[in-house]
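re: that chain from earlier
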Amino acid sequence: MSTKLVPSLCPYCAVGCGMYLVVEKGKAIGVEYMTDHPTCEGALCPKGNSVLEFLNHEDRLKYPMKRVGDEFVRISWDEALDMVAHGLARNIKKNGPQSIGFLASSRCNNEENYLMQKLARFLGSPNVDNCARLCHSPTVMGLGAVLGTGAMTNNLIDLQNSKCIFAIGTNFTEAHPIVSRWAQKARDNGATIIVADPRITSTSWMADLHLRIKPGSDIDLLRGMMKVIIDEGLADKEFIDERTEGYSELDLNLKDFTLEKASELTEVPAAEIARAARIYAKSSSSALLYSMGITQHVCGTDNVKACATLSLLAGQIGRPGAGVWPMRGQNNVQGNCDMGGMAEFYPGYKKASDPKSIEFFKAAWKIDDLPMGPGLTSTEMTDAALEGKITAMYLIGEDPVVCEANINKTKAALDNLDFLIVQEIFMTATAKMADLVLPAAAWAEKDGSYTSMERRVQWIDQAVPPVGEAKEGLWIINEIGKRLGLDLGGTSARDVLMEVNRNVPQYAGMTLERISKVGGLRWPCPDEKHPGTDILHKERFSTPDGRAKMASVLNKPAGERTSEDYPILLSTGRIVVHYNSGSMTQRCASLRERDSELYVEINPADAAPLKISHGDMVKVKTVRGEAEARARISEKVKPGMAFMPFHWQGTNIITSDAVDPVSKIPEYKMAACRIEIIA
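^ sequence. v structure.
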């Protein structure tokens, strides 16, 4: 059999880089660069370069397994699927459909996620969610409230047209390395780069101005910049008058706020705040980039609203190089939300609480009844499981035992379930708690479409067969449906995509033939002649009246404050060689060589009185528990602050599970801790 190159996509972050898999005798044996891919131009980050190390790893799940005592026993697919159907039916009969929770996967394709949320709702459960709850649910809610659409306004290539890039709460050179190519092109073209981040990072190294803000003071900084823009006459009044609402309320909100007060609250010199505001407002095209440093707070939704409002105030939106770029973390987190994998929305962001949405999908799906939402979010499902209100859960490609905040609470919640089904490619920490484990095909082993952070929808064909008896998610979900007497429709990804074309307006023109071409199309794409949308909001916003709604927000105290017992503020984030729970990257030897263990960055001023030296093993303790980590003494973190990457299970034992009341995201970025050397 000859060697062939199969077009594919990187399965890690949401940049959506293209690649070719070198396939020989049914196995992927290499990666070739896709130089004509518009987003990456052939480049891949360390994770993308190492994808075959986990795809071909010996730990891949190959057979269905059920729990027998403390062990797992291999079973047939027939037995496994019957167990799922009987278990779900039993819980519905005993406790009602609202007793079941579903977590769709942002690592799976659009078609699988569309069918997953359809299964949940056909069974009468509104409780379907995904990992966006833990990273960018404030983007969906915040940008949705201000601009009408909770997605990136421009595209990654367009960054090269920016004359100012303002990055706040994002370390994109590590979390989304390929994005730095376009930021660097902008810099080469004369752009000024401003970075607001408490830490010194590889992103701040490329900045012309680094604002080392106090953790949790993002709104104070943004309000300070807005105050300067208004007071110095830099607001785009024509844009504001023609295309927005809420300016007078914003002006009143800022009336008694001073630059000096902003400086006091953020610990950033007033002159630097003013300089940043002037550069951002005066630039012919300013881009605002943010990520989880903005969203993972009890005021995450308000943080996002403030980012969007700053862009409106300066008229920096709806043009090449000017807009808001939320930097999303998983390869299909955008698509999962688009497909209705959220408690608040049916597909296409039709509100689950709106009777019109219910009627639309009852007609589209030819079903007599569907549940009104909103359902429980993933964080609310944890609480409900502890209370015995959620008694069964079906999880696909999610690892809450590593990824949720305060995971001791999560473990207790999962332990309290009557029935837990986990569909995965590896035996993750969550899978080890399951009653039933279903082996799933990985991205290269199935057909389907994925939607990147820039709304780019791309199709890939199966490159290699699934390992062992692993199955595509579509097959598994359909077979479960059949055993429950449900006809979910669409046994192939092609068929499901055609249904998505009919029922999700943003995807109406995204046929298989069109999105199979290198680079795909960006939504909204309302018909088959539409070229896709590079830049949102050029002429009108996605609100009912076409006008953006400026938000007047105030900062909110963190859910947890430092104290004498817990004097150091702990934050978390990504590092370049690892990804989310680490289930994939920690099985890649080339990546593990770079970073193989959990560490904590501590400022020398904090380490010295604790007699902690670089390389010591320490315990990091919060009120929720403790984690062991290797100390890295570094000026990267400010005094009174520590940083831990979240790719190891220990980190989220100790993070705060205080939540934003709107988006229900936990406050991963603000936990009070103390650090002790291990004798």
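The domain at 153-326 is CATH 3.40.228.10 (Dimethylsulfoxide Reductase; domain 2).
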